[in-house]
Amino acid sequence: MRAATGSQDTLNRLDHRDPLVFDTHELGRRPGSMRKVSRTLEAPEGLGIADVIGVPGKSPITLELRLESVVEGVLVTGTAETHVEGECSRCLEPVEDDLEVDFQELYYYPESEERHRARTPVADVLDEESDEETYRLEGDFFDLQPVLRDAVVLALPLQPVCQDDCLGLCSACGARLSDDPDHHHEAADPRWAALQGLSAAPGDEGDGIKNSDTREGLAENQEK
Asked: Residue 68's closest CA among 116, 107, 110?
């Protein structure tokens, strides 16, 4: 009775109006029955890698799903097609691409999972991580969003680039090096910086000799 109450509480938290929530009622619980579902919907916010690359919120996602009834629950196999946007990790220019991902997940019947736990000798010591990786049907409904989110994130590059040979930005002025491969700055060797103040400027030595000769000539004229 306690498990049934928990299942009802979970069911009440699921928004059946959410386009990523699917109904399996027509599929039934006859192992071997199958149903195909096609749906185009708006992407939820935050679908991707934050501040790197992802699916813009409310942009279209096309889903092709196959729902199969099995003994333990409903096996969901699908493909998602969408568009992603981000910025180059080297030069910060905008990056965009079309993305197609495949996924497959088993959503357990609540009672099927309870029977599985009852047969497991160490059921009472299952860690929380394993529990979170198990997806459950909530009544006749399942939420595809966490499965879709995992599939999209795993397919995205952690360091997207606008092109494979992008040269990045100039560390001195921030110019995009791919636009000017010969771009460079003249930089003095810092190892010689301390000696620059000690060396005489060009022409200083010669000027000193000329000034000395001039003073000696004036002294001779005065004596005469």
From this structure: 107
